[in-house]
Each structure stands twice: as structure tokens, then as C-alpha cells.
Amino acid sequence: MYVIDRFLSLFSLDMGIDLGTANTLVCVRGRGIVLMEPSVVAVRKGTNKVLLNGNAVGEMAKAMLGRTPGNIEAIRPMKNGVIANFDITEKMLRYFINKVHNRRWGYRPRLVITVPSGITDVEKRAVYASADRAGARKVYLIDEPKAAGIGAGMPITEPTGNMIVDIGGGTTEVAVISLGGVVTTQSLRIAGDKMDEAIVQHMKRTYNMDIGPRMAEDIKIKIGSAAPLEEELTTEAKGRDFITGLPRREIITSEEIREALREPVNAIIEAIRLTLEQTPPELAADIFDRGMVLTGGGALLRGIDKAIARETGLQVTIADDPITAVARGTGVVLDDLPRMSAVLESSDNEY
């Protein structure tokens, strides 16, 4: 089996895949991150047929969100960090694998795929099946907090407490890890998407204005914050007036968006508190000394580290390039699969 595996590896690039609700990142062994695209697929409405000869995936599909005619639908097959549409997820995975390999045949890669720590057995089987049907030779699953900790350079395999908070698009993963295992965790289905929804609702309540999720995300990136800023910001929101039905725009401030984001941010802080309450005393002492590390796109929300530090009294560090930390963690695992096997789950079959 080892000889066969070595032979097959000559033709296939082993990949780590951060299969996220908002974005999918692919890391190739020895090359690092080679792909980062939105987890969006454009299909004909009422079918699972991908447009443009199967190429309307990722950036191209995201550009269609909210702008498609009635017979076309741009969908996100991942919801809250898990597969919501099995067939479309398989097609999306196959597209990304093909794009990385730059060929249509002869590949059977080994895949390391990240999943939320709160995933069910049924949801795990869906990931295995989608990856298998997309062309994987062997599938390994790794909890997102473990991958994030590895990618952030934390010593998660050592007998010490490591606290990681990964704020993604669909889920926030809070975990204390020691000796390669998750000691205590909270998997919260409140993250970047819920922040965008909070901004959409704020614009409806305050301005009688309907904005799309892409505009909400843009507002969050431009002026969103979780703590007061030294210099408050403003930006322009564009959408449709609920009363007249006509396009309009409003100038909005970072103060009002911070207030709109208070509920999802407080939910994340509460999950961190609950995780700390459930942490054994010796590991809690380690965390008091070492603090916690933030990863994921949500870690880029201005002042979120300060808000968490204020509420917990702990040191809070944002990982270098937090958006790619989980994917980089899969790359470290790929570099030494035998040694890292303790942090992985795997499918039974290898071809």
C-alpha cells in the first residue's frame, strides 16, 4: 500500500481545504495556499446544473449574487460551516481540485478538510462523501480550531493549554486544546454572516432601506468595529427605499454600525466565557499566562481583540494573516501526515 500511495502521489497534489461558509482556501503540500475563492456556485434555478460549462464557481459566481435573472441562482452550498447542498458542494470541490491540478483526469489527491468542532456524524459523512465523489483518494478531517491553532504557530500537541477563537463566515469556533486534543469547546453558529445580517436589519429599521448582503459585508469591512475608534469612520450605503421602491444612498457612521454589531459580538464573547468556565484549572492557568489567539476573517473586525480582552481580562492576540490561518494549518499537517495523525479523523477507504 505504501508503494502504491507513493506512486499515486507522483500524479496527485495532496491538498488541505478550508471549506468555509464564505470562502474556500486550498493549500498544496510544499507550495502553500494556491487558491482562495468564495464558496458560491451559480446554477440554473430549480436544478443543480452549474452555468458556463461548470465554471460559474467562486469569484465569478459571487459577482452574480443578487444580480441574476429569474432563471439563474447564485447559491452558497455551505451553511453554518456544514454542507447544505450535497450535490453543489461536490461540484464546487471538483472545480477547485481541477483548477489547482490544471487538468481533468489522472488525479486522486489526498485531502485534509477542516470541519467545525460541533459537526455531527451525519454532517461528517456528507463531507467524506462529497470529497470522495469529487475525486479524493483519501480524506482526512480536522477540527477547525486545531487547524487554526497549528496555522497560528501554537504548540497544540504539547501538554499545555492553548486557547483559539476562530471567527469565520458561518461559525465561531472557541476551543482549549492540549496534547493535540480539544479539551473544551463551543461551536457557535454566529460569525461573519450574522454580522452582515445585523447590518441589513439596522438599515431596515433605521433608514427604511433595503441593502444586499454584499453591501452589508462591504460596510462591515470599511467601518465595522467592536470597540470605540480613535477616529470614527463614515461610508456610503446604497440600496432600495422600502417606501418609494427607488434606489437611494445614505451616509452611515462607525458608531451606529458598532451598535448594530453589538449582539453578535456579545454572543461570541459569551461563548468565550463559557469555554473558560469549563476549562480545567491547570489549563486555565496556562491560558492566563499565554492568553488566546484570534483567527478567521472576523478577527479583522476593528477592536474585537480589545472588546474580548476587556470582558475576559486576558491577553488577546490576532494571528498573522488570520484569514489564512486554518488553511495554513492544513498545510503543516500535510507536510507530516504520519506525525500529525493524532489530530485527524480519516475515511476508511484509500484507492
Can you give a write-up of this model?
- With 351 residues, the chain is of the alpha+beta class.
- The protein has four domains: 129 residues, ATPase, nucleotide binding domain (Nucleotidyltransferase, domain 5), CATH 3.30.420.40; 36 residues, no CATH class; 92 residues, ATPase, nucleotide binding domain (Nucleotidyltransferase, domain 5, 2-Layer Sandwich), CATH 3.30.420; 71 residues, Actin, Chain A, domain 4.
- The protein has 13 helices and 18 strands.
- A six-stranded mixed β-sheet has the order 3-2-1-8-9-18, with helices on both faces.
- A hairpin with a 2-residue loop joins strand 6 and strand 7.
- Helix 4 packs across helix 5.
- The longest helix has 16 residues.
- The termini are close together.
- The N terminus is likely disordered.
Question: Which word captures the global form?
Answer: flat
Task: Give the helix proportion (percent range).
Answer: 25-40%
CATH architecture of the largest domain: 2-Layer Sandwich
Q: What gap, in angstroms, lies between the N and C termini?
A: 9 Å
Number of distinct helices: 13
CATH topology category name of the largest domain: Nucleotidyltransferase, domain 5
- Overall number of domains: 4
Computed over alpha carbons, the radius of gyration is: 21 Å
Alpha-beta content class: alpha+beta
- The averaged pLDDT comes out at 89
CATH superfamily of the largest domain: ATPase, nucleotide binding domain
- Per DSSP, what share of the residues sits in E-state strands of 2 or more residues? 25-35%
Largest sheet features: 6 strands, mixed
